[in-house]
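Task 17 of the worksheet. Students: predict the tertiary structure of the chain below and write it out as structure tokens. Keep your answer in the requested format; marks are given for formatting as well as content.
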Amino acid sequence: MSITVTSILVSIVYVAVLRWAWRVLNWVWFRPKKVERCLRQQGFAGKPYRLLFGDWKEKSDMLKEARTKPIGLSDALLPRVMPFLHQLVKDYGKNSFMWVGPKPRVNIMNPDQIKDVFMKINEYQKPSHPLLKHLACGLGSHEGENGLNIER
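Model answer:
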């Protein structure tokens, strides 16, 4: 039995495709489900993860519906401006999470916990894209202690 160049190339392509498929499956399903389990163990509540798009469709549908209704001067603004967040807090409480694609967005509304997050600035890093530093500069793009220094 001889090994041909074609069989070697087919094997390499096969391994590369399997590796790529595993990475995609991990990004789209396994990692979000693991993160969801961890968040629930820490006491956060929220909707279960939905494949790839998360809560985007429901969020955009609620926003479209809220904008079609007229608003009065004495009406609350939050149900009109952020209806999905308003409904999420009503349904799941102030410590909840929502899905933005395959990534969770955690909502913390307890002042003591917010203070704890701001005091431990190096432990809670902001997610960023490598090109973000080149495209945007300002308070939102700084990490660590540089993010809190305000020059006069």
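Marker's comment: Residues 120-152 form one domain. The first helix runs from residue 5 to 41.
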